[in-house]
Specification:
Two copies of one chain form a homodimer. The first copy, chain A, has 305 residues and is of the alpha/beta class. Helix content of chain A is 39%, strand content 19%. Chain A has one domain (3-137, 169-304): 3-Layer(aba) Sandwich (Rossmann fold). Chain A has helices at 10-22, 47-56, 74-81, 92-106, 111-121, 149-155, 177-183, 194-202, 205-212, 234-242, 247-251, 289-304; strands spanning 3-7, 28-32, 38-40, 43-45, 127-130, 137-142, 145-148, 164-168, 186-189, 218-221, 224-225, 228-229, 260-264, 278-282. Chain A has a seven-stranded parallel sheet with strand order 5-2-1-9-10-13-14, with helices on both faces. A three-stranded antiparallel sheet of chain A has the order 7-6-8. The first copy, chain A, has a two-stranded antiparallel sheet with strand order 3-4. In chain A, β6 and β7 form a beta hairpin. In chain A, α1 packs parallel to α2, α1 (10-22) crosses α12 (289-304) and α4 crosses α5 (111-121). The longest helix of chain A has 16 residues, at 289-304. Chain A is globular. In chain A, 52% of the residues are buried. The A-B interface holds A 41-43, 72, 74-79, 81-85, 92-97, 99-100, 102-103, 106, 117-118, 121-122 and B 41-43, 72, 74-79, 81-85, 92-97, 99-100, 102-103, 106, 117-118, 121-122.
Chain lengths: 305, 305
């Protein structure tokens, strides 16, 4: 079964890891968020694509939740000693990838080609695509001012409440994205932050239209458990921007775009207001490989149910 | 006593280390070669300036002869795994410096400012200046074709014989260079390769003119011992391009620019043809800190002799 999945970084990457355990890896296309891409020390960093690549290559640090296992930080320590910018954590292993990607981008390769090259080098069979090759950047409006995503998220530790999320840049889908959405027998939205992880993907109008015009089922997995985010600010954002953190508030972020929402058992008593969206209740915490795989199975089960 | 010294990389850096043991470090200005600067993985690398900075900061790897002590190579290993360019060795610690410098250069800072900033951060009192802030690149003409310096030196292991050395770019001295040459009570040329280390500095016409018009003594230290280079291709180049490797052949590379040449005891019987250039015979192998210091003392002694 061919599957296309929209995904943010860490949580999405974990979900995708589970997914390729139950679907042929080569039948899965991951459409990744690039709204939080950032230039650090002159290098182009794509945190969400990298989380997906590292997870699929088995190189990710399970414990820390981001970056590579066995990472060291010697280059960044030197940068600090030389009074360079150190607000964004770049490990030595991670740097190797950023150097290769940045050089390729500077030579004119689009991000999708570079990502494919990196995937091949890492032995990944799953298709990993950026939502767009164009420059698309997420800006966060807060009472303290408007910030580029990573400045708000990393440098300010996402401490500011969010009044609005804005996307900068006119973007069209990267080559392969629309084909993947068209060929898929199931469309999935990973348990990622609807505003800052999935939102930038859906900000590419042709992707949103393709989802809205789908001929196959679309299933989102809620990133909340008992109304709380496992990590990150999704719950605070939903509370402030959508008025609550129930499954219905999550589903409201994908209007007309999903047929079912996978929610956690902890939210089973709070299923009002989902309208046409069917709820699928299961355990959604991806605490280990088995849990990830089970969650993917449930999401896939939505098709046949 | 104020001293200005023209220097290439490794050998020059060692000499400068000895020099600042016998002269107040703040009274020394090093004018470094930038002809072998290179863009690697999108980073601006200044190998000779770095050798000087690392040596003066006590961070250099004495045994390997280049780069930093305690270096690791994890980023570059990753670059290799991702099929990126690995022909030029960049360690993790070294990368930190290249990232900081490259970012500063891209933001419009001239190389001399960046070098000063790095010096300050590394606690270096000696003034380290690039010969020029302009783009000046050394090209090596060989029977196999013409190559940018590092491609010939590193990628091809300087295996090709050299027919000619050419400098690309119109360059004026970096701020501070002419002042340092004017203020100096002694001008030194480090035991570096005359063609590819000192040559690019003298290719900056105003520097060459300042040396030619000097009011103070100028002393070069020969990089050869018994007609052989301690490392690198200086001897092969002198043989082929100047017709021999005697002290007179070395001195011929600095016509009208030096008053004395420090040569090794092993060359003491081969002092013919030096003309106006006085020879100073001593042990020149900089095998340890004491040897470096003694060599610097001898070079300085040329003034009072």
């Amino acid at each position: 079964m061919k599957v296309a999945v929209l995904s943010g970084g860490v949580g999405g990457a974990r979900f995708v890891q589970g997914l390729v355990e139950v679907v042929e890896p080569g039948d899965v296309t991951v459409i990744g968020n690039v709204g939080d891409d950032v230039e650090v020390l002159g290098l182009h960093v794509s945190p969400d694509l990298d989380s997906i690549l590292y997870a699929l290559a088995g190189l990710n640090d399970e414990e820390r939740g981001w970056g590579r296992a066995g990472e060291t930080w010697r280059a960044l320590a030197t940068v600090g000693e030389l009074d360079g910018e150190t607000w964004f954590q770049l490990g030595d292993l991670d740097l190797g990838l950023h150097l290769v990607r940045t050089q390729a981008l500077r030579s004119g390769d689009p991000l999708s080609s570079v990502t494919r090259r990196l995937s091949v080098a890492l032995g990944i069979e799953t298709h990993v695509l950026p939502a767009t090759d164009d420059r698309l950047r997420t800006w966060i409006e807060t009472p303290a001012g408007e910030f580029p995503f990573q400045e708000w998220f990393v440098a300010r530790g996402h401490r500011d409440e969010v009044d609005a999320v804005r996307f900068e840049g006119e973007a069209i889908p990267a080559p392969g994205v629309l084909d993947a959405l068209e060929d898929a027998e199931l469309l999935l939205i990973a348990p990622s932050n609807p505003y800052v992880s999935i939102g930038p993907i859906l900000a590419v109008e042709a992707i949103r239209s393709a989802l809205a015009a789908r001929q196959v089922p679309a299933v989102a997995v809620s990133p909340l458990i008992g109304g709380r985010a496992v990590r990150g600010p999704a719950d605070r954002m939903l509370q402030r921007l959508a008025g609550g953190t129930s499954p219905a508030h999550v589903a409201s972020q994908y209007p007309g775009l999903i047929d079912a929402l996978v929610v956690d058992e902890a939210d089973a008593d709070d299923l009002d207001g989902l309208g046409d969206v069917r709820s699928i209740v299961t355990r959604t915490l991806m605490s280990d490989p088995d849990a990830r795989k089970r969650l993917a199975e449930v999401a896939l089960g939505a098709v046949v149910a």
